[in-house]
Amino acid sequence: MFDTMTFTKIAASLCGALLVLLLGQWAAEELYHVDGYGDQAYVIDTGADEATEEVVEVAFADVFAAADAGAGQRVFRQCSACHKLEDGANAVGPHLYGVVGRDVGSTAYGSYSGALNEVADIWSPENLNAFLENPRGWAPGTSMGYNGLRDVEDRANLIAYLDSIDD
């Protein structure tokens, strides 16, 4: 069958092939490496040098005052995967009936994370806005696995919708 010398020859040939490959790669890099590309022959103006417009940030209270609950109902479709609107009907997450103005962690939902109780006492529109923007950033350690709503108008519409469903 095979003896020790045969295995030694096989190992040596693999090491030799690897050495040739690495030396070839080094030689090719030295031959074809370009340090710089020189000056461009033609420059296309993309407008990147122009001054950018400043984004004016609107206060949440102003956006919330003009919020549309109907548009918030459409945004709630994202939430409906884990939350229910019926009073006491918990799903993966707690029910959201009467959530605006409710004490944090006051429902019979069993697995609230302690992170929420540390950052707020009441689900005010401002607290809901901050939580919906970035749940893990506002309440580090929360068990909510949603990345958040980036648009302030969507958050305001959603909070207005949640506020409208409870008498």
UniProtKB/TrEMBL annotation:
Transmembrane segments: none
Entry keywords, A to Z: Electron transport, Heme, Iron, Metal-binding, Transport
InterPro entries: Cyt_c-like_dom, Cyt_c-like_dom_sf, Cyt_c_1A/1B
Protein name as catalogued: Cytochrome c family protein
UniProt GO MF annotations: electron transfer activity; heme binding; metal ion binding
Record-linked Pfam families: Cytochrom_C (PF00034)
Highest taxon listed in the record's lineage: Bacteria
Domain Cytochrome c: 67-166
